Amino acid sequence: MAEIGSDVEKAASLLMQGELVAVPTETVYGLAGNAIDVNVVAKIFAVKNRPEFDPLIVHVPSLRNADTFVKEIPKKAERLAQLFWPGPLTLLLQKKNDLIPPLVTAGLSTIGVRSPDHPLTRKLLTALPFPLAAPSANPFGYVSPTSPQHVNDQLGDKISYILDGGVCEVGIESTIVGFTATEQAVIHRLGGLSLERITAVLGEVDVLTHSTSNPSAPGQLKSHYAPGKKLVIGKIEELLQVHPAHSSGILTFSQDYHSQYQRILSPGGNMEEAAKNLFLFLREFDTMPIDIILTELLPEEGLGRAINDRLTRAASVDNN
Ligand code: TXA
Ligand code: MG
Fold it and tell me: Mutation test of ligand 1: which of 60, 173, 207 has the most ligand atoms closer than 8 Å to its C-beta?
């Protein structure tokens, strides 16, 4: 198992030596390594068992730190970074050279850049002379980790150190925003920064929906973010007529079904609280003696959109 501790200097020194370290962010834990060393980047793909067509996000202390590897930054990107960085927002910016190896970006002409909002990881990024490539610290296709224990459970035998920053505040991955040739903003992944907060600044933006093949962001693959148990979405009352309560997990937004295997995302109906609990609860269902998870969609507003996106993808996995 990996060592879990909050020693930023130790994490920095391991990263300087080309090791991988799991790091906390406000969204989910990342599996971090030196983004400019192709051998380290290759290790990230290997540890996650991630296909090389799925690009990694590069983490920087601030937008200025991206100047060495991205071309001129669109005005709208600049504006979003000003308002929402550090925070749960990834910007897809044009690469200007191969300082960040093509393996990181899966050969794409854009690079996903994010400045995460967690004090330990910010300290780490500031101390290091290179940016950190960091996908979510889970095996490819599985639910993202929101605590050091989640990382240890799945990747503990493959990495030596997990920087302990507690439970992730936001709990759902960053919102990914790209830009067209005419600098129109396009949302590639709904996430921890709500659509409403982005449209309040930029006006209407397109949202790419997920697909089953040839996605523009492979994390957009429809079957992704899946727990080990089969998950179905519908009206809980109706689902309970088909699936017996004694062998079903129930995941609701706020309603209580008084079932033994139930998790309520937010009894008070708060989207932020629901997002923070989502991945923890999906993991908990995996340890329960149930055959299936019954769940419902949340209202399509605020973080509810991103939560619904993850639930819909989890439901489209065939893992009977
Ligand atoms: O909140 C987050 O974004 C977390 C934390 C650790 O920062 N990271 C994360 O990384 O969720 P990952 O690798 O699990 O998901 C990154 C997503 C993938 O779906 C990938 O396809 C997409 O970002 N992505 C990265 N670079 C891209 C690019 N240049 N163009 C399109 N999609 C990109
Ligand atoms: Mg991921």
Answer: 173
* Nearest ligand to residue 175 Cα: 1
pTM: 0.96
Ligand 2 center to 140 CA (angstroms): 7
User: 3-state class of 90 per DSSP?
Assistant: strand
Ligand nearest to the CA of 225: 2
Question: CB-hemisphere CA count at 13 Å for 294?
Answer: 23
CA 81 to ligand 1 center in whole angstroms:
17
Contacts 24+ apart (CB under 8 A), 118-122: 118/23, 118/24, 118/25, 118/26, 118/165, 119/165, 120/6, 120/8, 120/23, 120/24, 120/163, 120/165, 121/23, 121/24, 121/25, 121/30, 121/59, 121/163, 121/165, 122/61, 122/86
- Number of Cβ atoms within 10 Å of the Cβ of 105: 21
Contacts by residues 65-68 (CB-CB < 8 Å, ≥ 24 positions apart): 65/131, 66/93, 66/113, 66/131, 68/99
- 91-114 tens-digit pLDDT: 999 999 999 999 999 999 999 999
Q: Is 115 in the pocket of ligand 1 (CB under 6 A)?
A: no
In a 3-state reduction of DSSP, which class is residue 239? helix
Task: For residue range 243-282, list pLDDT tens digits in order.
Answer: 999 999 999 999 999 999 999 999 999 999 999 999 999 9
DSSP character at residue 23: E
320 has pLDDT over 60 = no
Q: Minimum-distance ligand to the CA of 57?
A: 1
Q: Pick the residue whose CA is nearest to atom 32 on ligand 1.
A: 217
Report the phi/psi class of residue 301: left, alpha or beta, with left for phi > 0 and alpha for psi in -120 to 50: beta
Residue 114: partners with Cβ closer than 8 Å, 6 or more residues away: 57, 58, 59, 60, 85, 89, 90, 91, 174
Whole-angstrom Cα distance, residue 271 to residue 276? 9
